[in-house]
Design goal:
This protein is an all-beta fold. It has one domain (about 25-110): SH3 type barrels (Roll), CATH 2.30.30. The chain has strands spanning about 25, 35-40, 45-50, 55-60, 70-75, 80, 85, 90-95, 95-100, 105-110. The strands form three sheets. The chain has a six-stranded antiparallel beta sheet, with no helix packed on it. A hairpin with a 4-residue loop joins strand 7 (about 85) and strand 8 (about 90-95).
Length: about 120
């Protein structure tokens, strides 16, 4: 049975393997194939803002008499499933997995090449 979300229900904070400052590669959309650094992450809506990716234009009207209108360009958020962490050694985006070490610490490693993330 499909349960519908109730209006006004609080969003749950999702656990993502990506972190702010990671270099990611876009795998779908108009900017497919480009790489950039993660500027911010919204864990509730599962969206990331990547530097130089998904640039949108916004026209802003003047609020008061005497102000001038302007045109702003900025990075809009994209869904985190449309990006993969970029591996410098293999030169492509790869999925991540978590390895639990002997001393119960967790490390992120690339799933295909088994290289730990620096």
């Amino acid at each position: 049975m499909n349960a519908k979300k109730k209006k006004g229900a609080p969003l749950k904070k999702k656990k993502l393997l990506l972190k702010q400052g990671d270099v990611v590669q876009v795998i779908s959309g108009k900017d497919k194939g480009t790489t950039g650094e993660i500027l911010s992450i919204d864990r509730y809506k599962e969206k990331v803002v990547v530097k130089g990716v998904n640039i949108v234009t916004k026209h802003i009207k003047p609020k008061q008499a005497g102000q001038e209108g302007k045109i702003e360009k900025f990075e809009a958020p994209i869904h985190y499933s449309n990006v993969l962490l970029f591996c410098e050694k293999s030169g492509k985006g790869e999925r991540l997995k978590i390895r639990i070490n002997d001393d119960n610490t967790k490390t992120r490693i690339f799933a295909q090449s088994n290289i730990p993330v620096e």
